[in-house]
Design a protein that fits this description.
- About 30% of the residues lie in helices and about 20% in strands.
- It has helices at about 15-20, 50-65, 100-105, 185-190, 195-220; strands at about 5-10, 30, 70-75, 85, 120-130, 140-155, 170-175.
- The longest helix is centred in the C-terminal third of the chain and has 27 residues, at about 195-220.
Length: about 220
């Protein structure tokens, strides 16, 4: 039986590393957008994380013919009324580097009291495509699973650490004293918003991968 393929629908190397680790025990062959030529990028025009993740998962699954897993995530700052949220990757301008974007966010909080620097990271994942099926059976593509992960914390006054990406150098998760970018990455892989969303997604993948792959092996 052909091994089930799962497309990790992102070009972000940080996300790829985290999701490769999260799904390492699954009986699947992981594929990535860089494996495919002439693939059209999907505009993140949704108003919510779920809308953006769904747009990406559906489009990339249809373009590649492979079941796709896409995510959308963002930083929500209480003092900014939940912003930048879904606009996190474009906050301050689409052409800014991660460091420039981080400094822009920090400057917007210069007048905010330390006790008001509450924030959280949110991640939504969507799985879209055809579930694995025994030989001779075809399954129509569909929305297969949705998961969400949240990590509460606060914002530092200046970037610290070199691991991670995005706003990781300034986000301090609750229960810790350093930002994600300076935290032991083994810990981050357990408590981050993306890790929590991925763990729930992995459990859902297990539910339909196990029986279908077992059926496929016994029929072959």
């Amino acid at each position: 039986m052909t091994q089930f393929e799962l497309l990790i629908a992102t070009r972000n190397e940080g996300k790829i590393a985290e999701l490769r680790q999260a799904f390492a025990t699954l009986p699947v062959r992981l594929r990535f957008l860089k494996d495919f030529e002439m693939i059209s990028e999907v505009a993140e025009v949704g108003k919510t994380y779920l809308e953006n993740a769904t747009l990406k998962a559906m489009s990339y699954a249809r373009q590649t013919g492979i079941t796709a897993l896409a995510d959308d995530s963002g930083l929500e700052v209480a003092a900014l009324q939940g912003g930048p949220g879904v606009l996190s990757a474009r906050f301050g301008g689409a052409d800014l580097t991660d460091l420039e974007r981080t400094k822009t966010l920090l400057s917007s909080l210069d007048q905010i009291a330390p006790t008001s620097r509450i924030a959280r990271f949110v991640c939504c994942m969507v799985l879209y495509g055809s579930p694995p099926s025994p030989p001779g059976e075809l399954s129509a593509p569909k929305l297969l699973a949705v998961s969400q992960g949240v990590c509460d914390g606060s914002l530092a006054h200046e970037p610290t650490g070199t691991d991670g990406f995005g706003f990781d150098p300034i986000f301090i998760p609750n229960g810790h004293i350093v930002p994600f970018a300076a935290l032991d990455q083994a810990i981050k892989r357990k408590i981050s918003h993306r890790a929590r969303a991925a763990e729930t997604m992995r459990q859902q993948l297990d539910l339909f991968l196990g029986p279908n792959l077992t059926a496929g092996r016994s029929a072959s």
